[in-house]
Amino acid sequence: MSFKNEKLCERIEELLKVVDDATPLTDKNMVELEIISLLVAEYEEKYHPIELPTLIEMVRERMSEMKLSQKDLAELLGVSPPRISEYLNGKSEPTLKVARQMYRKLDIDPEILLG
């Protein structure tokens, strides 16, 4: 983050102390907050975009969150444990049917599944 952006973020913090949900959208502080927030968001998106996690990263994350072993995941998705191992080691890609199950059972974003 640049020095200028740091100053803008500091100003956002100051403005957040004086505006709330009841503040009219026409209030000068609310207008300033909106403009600065948009500028910072555009800058961050352009120069520091947040990359989507890979499918392997997401599957591992969901396994951890749901406390699933590879065997448990295989049963949940209706595939063999060796096939899960292949997916997690990047040796093969899930079929469309398995990807659909990952979406439904693991709540993995389709953009990541199709990535």
Residues in helices, as a percent range:
55-70%
> Number of DSSP strands?
0
| Tally of DSSP helical segments | 7
Q: Low-confidence stretches at least 5 residues in length (pLDDT < 50)?
A: none
What is the residue-mean pLDDT, rounded to a whole number? 92
Run of helices and strands = HHHHHHH
Q: Beta-strand percentage?
A: under 5%
**Biggest β-sheet description:** none
- Intertermini distance: 28 Å
Backbone structural class: mainly alpha
Please provide a brief summary of the model:
The chain has 115 residues and is mainly α.
Textual characterization of the structure:
The model has no long low-confidence stretch (mean pLDDT 92). This protein has two domains: 3-47, no CATH class; 55-114, 434 Repressor (Amino-terminal Domain). With 115 residues, it is mainly α. The chain has seven helices and no strands. The chain starts with a helix and ends with a helix. Helix 1 packs antiparallel against helix 2 and helix 4 crosses helix 5. The protein is 68% helix and 0% strand.
Q: Which descriptors would you attach to this protein?
A:
115 residues, mainly alpha, 2 domains, elongated, 434 Repressor (Amino-terminal Domain), 68% helix
Layout of SSEs?
Elements: H1 3-16, H2 28-47, H3 55-66, H4 70-77, H5 81-88, H6 96-106, H7 110-114
Helix pairs in contact: 1-2, 4-5
